[in-house]
Amino acid sequence: MIPELGRFALVLALILSGLQAVFGIVGAGRSDERWMAAVRPAVAGQFVLVSTAIGALIYAFVTFDFSVFYVASNSNSALPTFYRVAAVWGAHEGSLLLWAWILAAWTLAVAALSRQLPASFASRVMGVLGIVSFGFFLFMLCTSDPFVRVPMDRIPADGRDLNPVLQDPALAIHPPLLYTGYVGFAVAFAFACAAMLEGKLDQVWARWTRPWTTFAWCFLSVGIALGSWWAYYELGWGGYWFWDPVENASFMPWLVGTALIHSLAVTEKRGLFKSWTLLLAILAFSLSLLGTFLVRSGVLVSVHSFAADPSRGMFILGFLVVMIGGALTLYAWRARELKSPAGFEGTSRDAFLLYNNIFLVIAAIVVFIGTLAPLVNDALGMRAISVGPKWFTITFPVIMLPLLALVAIGIHAAWKRGRLADSRNRIVAGCAIALLAGLLVVYGAYGPGKFLSVVGIVCGIWVIVSSLFDPVDRIRRKLSLSRAVIGMTIAHLGLGVGVIAISTVESYTVERDVALGPGESLSMGRYSYRFDSIGPVDGPNYEGVRAQITVLRDGRPVTVLHPEKRNYWVQRQTMTEAGIDSRWNTDLFVALGEDLGAGRWSVRAQLRPLVDYVWLAAAIMALGGALAATDRRYRTRSVASEAAVTAAEAT
Amino acid sequence: MTRFVLPIVVFVALAGVLFLGVRNSTNKGTMPSALLGKPAPNFELPALGKPGETVTLAQFAGKPFVLNVWATWCVACREEHQTLLDIASTKAVTLVGLDYKDKDPEALEWLQQFGNPYDHVAVDAEGRTAIDFGVYGAPETYFIDASGRVLYRHVGEMTPEVWRREFIPRIKGTKR
Amino acid sequence: MNLLRAALLCLAGIALPAFAIDTTVLPNPELQARYENLTHELRCMQCQNNNIADSPAGLATDLRREVAEMLTAGKSDDEVRAYMVQRYGDVILFNPPLNSSTVWVWATPLVALVGGLIVAFVIVRRRGRLVATDDSEVRDDLAP
User: Fold this and answer.
1) Residue A98 — φ and ψ, nearest 5°?
2) Cα A286 → chain centroid
3) A361 interfacial to chain C (CB closer than 8 Å)
4) Which of A314, A611, A613, C30 is least enclosed, having the fewest CB within 10 Å?
5) Domain B30-175 adopts which CATH fold?
6) pLDDT number for residue A379
7) Does a structural domain hold residue A444?
8) C54:A237 CB<8 A
9) Domains in chain C, number
10) Would you call A174 an interface residue with chain C, using a CB distance cutoff of 8 Å?
């Protein structure tokens, strides 16, 4: 009963989203007050219906309803409740439902927080979001119905269990956060389409679009970081980024999204880069959709891929063609009308943000090429090739490091005229401090490392120091600091921290794969790992072994690690749980390999300096973004306060 | 002006590539053999169950043959076994088995229990010959023509459709 | 049975995050370094997301053995790569070699970089000329 209710709710949601789209776009086009007034109720109704659908699926999981094929494939009677809920998005169909629900939630937020915007514009935004929702509901109902029942005579006594890889807290929240980011870019896309439909794009539009886009970017940053952190401690190989196609699929929208939030800043401040901002908004969402496509269509081989199905691939491709083709056609038609008479110098803030965006887009292109090259070669009948991590680790820093230097310098530049000469002392001082600190790190703390890493550390420090000059100066002069400035500063600090952390961990990680028996030790620098013992361990749906490994520093024990190897009975998969101790400056990592007989085990031991700061950096950036996005000028609630802010900015 | 049309042009090109990608995606992960059109690698391996005898590439010179990579630990090999027995009964072509990283007693027992479709069985205990052929894993089936060139490789379970669609035309082709 | 499980799981395309720990030690550190380098460069054809150093597949174990034997026998890195490519094609190399099929992969970032620089130059020059006629004032100099 309940699953059928869920499917019925999806059908109704499909209809409602279609109405939302029609009322929104056609209503605005005809300036029909009644149609436009019907949009928000449609949004609210759609949200209630999708919530019902996902509620029905959650219910099916929590009550062990194995007559539903999706539940039987992804759950088990021994699965703890928490994971029964997370299992809802553990595979393709359910994750699509999550996507659709998050889209409905964003749309509801837009509906609630857009009353101060002109009716035709807001209607168009919600209308475009309605088209996206419609597409997803259609996709689900046609190819990926999560409520399909198992034939009555073949209902299994027990389910096939959730993939053990997913039975982890971080991975339970990683998809929702990641999707919130992906889907958030649909809002930016909708704002862009609405502007093109209106035939008008100005600084006020940019001010409306910025907070939505920035929040989406924040969620995406945290979502990606969570995935990386999970891979590190759960997969057992101690890596945090493999340039896997699906990782890249989330990274590309992030790069373009970063360019977008900066381009929006220029459009709001100076009325410039209008067509660029439009294009970036379309591109960011396109890459989100492309990511969805890549994971589910079977065109790429990846650890992350959902079970591949070409018919699903074709559907998403069709959806992509309609949405993106439509948006780009609008762009070709409307963008040429967006001209601006403003000027700026080559060393102005505007110029530096232009360089910033160019570099970020090139970085996205590089990742794009690397990810899709095997597919392209295959599709065009050329020789099959592989593009592995090393290609990315060479090309990506080559583009990002000059960008970091530009950030460190450009942050002092004023709008329009730059006046960098005024900041010459700050720039030189920043660079000098960075070089000195970099040399200290390299020759004092860690020792010589890869050249690119040293450059990275210096650039990271430079960005941090440069970001602090202006705020510190303003505080000293007792001037006010808007949230926007505080947020920007914090976000750039996060960037610097992230770059330093990544450069350090890439260059100074120590990794040893060895065979150890009880009592034997492995030494790495000042640390040594002593294999004490190993014994059996039992869990709710697994059994395995657990080792005790004592870590000593300069001969004195500092911690004990407990890596495990677990066999999950139902899916018959073996998982590695690494033993990790996070110290303030390094992670001590150990993972079990294979039983080599005679009590000896193969073991991977690592020292990972500063690796935790990689993820901390993402959190800092997200915090900065969130602060900036809640600056007072974005928080207009009424038409009156909106008009006041517009008037204040116009003078 | 063109810069506004450029994005959609690029997008259409990309969509075309992705379309081709989806269409070809049913055989993802199984790339065509690197040896296609090239001479099959030489091998000289012990014959299963016949101590002192060997199976070599040279003994098939001038004759086309099908090489099937199998093992007793390979579940899909068990699935395709009936198809192989059917193929063997048609006597269309010489069928050579490559017993991949297996154990002789178990292999002999397996063939006795389930039937032996092979005219010859070569034992590749360490998998070195398989590597020379570019084998990813069992089961795989190769067609080598009379001049010793690898003409086709099928990765995965052999089915009557694959045999009919890919192997029979090629076998007929070499007989001409 | 480990072989079977790994092969099945890889070929079935289920997300198998398993990995292997390779504890091979070669006679001298220089050979060891070359071995580790090569085994990280070669792709496992069975578990295609792993290199042969990290892959649990049986094929990976066999290929690692080949690499170790070839290096110990005095072959060069290029000879090892050529050996693998001859049998498995260019796909087995995670770093795409430079040839007619891959030149576009390496060229595109370069072209993009040059294109970006040209775009930046053109825009900055045009906007620079407009500064004289631009009478807009910007209030807070460094706020975003």
Assistant:
1) -60, -45
2) 14
3) yes
4) C30
5) Glutaredoxin (3.40.30)
6) 82
7) yes
8) yes
9) 1
10) no
